[in-house]
Specification:
Chain lengths: ~120, ~120
Amino acid sequence: EAQVTQNPRYLITVTGKKLTVTCSQNMNHEYMSWYRQDPGLGLRQIYYSMNVEVTDKGDVPEGYKVSRKEKRNFPLILESPSPNQTSLYFCASSLRDGRGRETQYFGPGTRLLVL
Amino acid sequence: AQSVTQLDSHVSVSEGTPVLLRCNYSSSYSPSLFWYVQHPNKGLQLLLKYTSAATLVKGINGFEAEFKKSETSFHLTKPSAHMSDAAEYFCVVSSSEGGFQKLVFGTGTRLLVSP
């Protein structure tokens, strides 16, 4: 089954304790993204990746890191989490059609609470 | 720059009555437009997308949306609401910036369906 998976789905941590949220897709998509969802703000892009070893900042990258060592995986790293990073996080991967148009497919989300 | 405005944060309808969720967009480019649905504690599911083909787009679960360039609108409609339609709906505009699709999400419209 074609899908985007994220782990963990739920995480409670404390300020300053490094954590990684994994994201994996089995659709051989080149493009992957991370978003955070906060009430009243919709989804905002954190980082994106056009391909292996190619990443760039989205709209709200502060406090986050990513890596893209393999095509299928795009982990999100919080080196020193803070309470304002409490949020719902979504990973997405994209398929580009013959006209260059893309459709993003989203993972199930990771709910993070930073105490 | 792209932007999306969802005109209603909440819409309440009775089961069996029509649904209208409004979305206006701003884009410097020829945009792609999407509607995503998010059921409680679930991830994002693609409802439908517009990519410069037919202006009336049909999606899953009986939803459709019409792209009106003159009004810069992409409203989502359904002739008859079902209880299972209760969810949050996001209008999304995308463009290719630097060769990569950038999604901009609206702040969401919560659809409430009463018996």
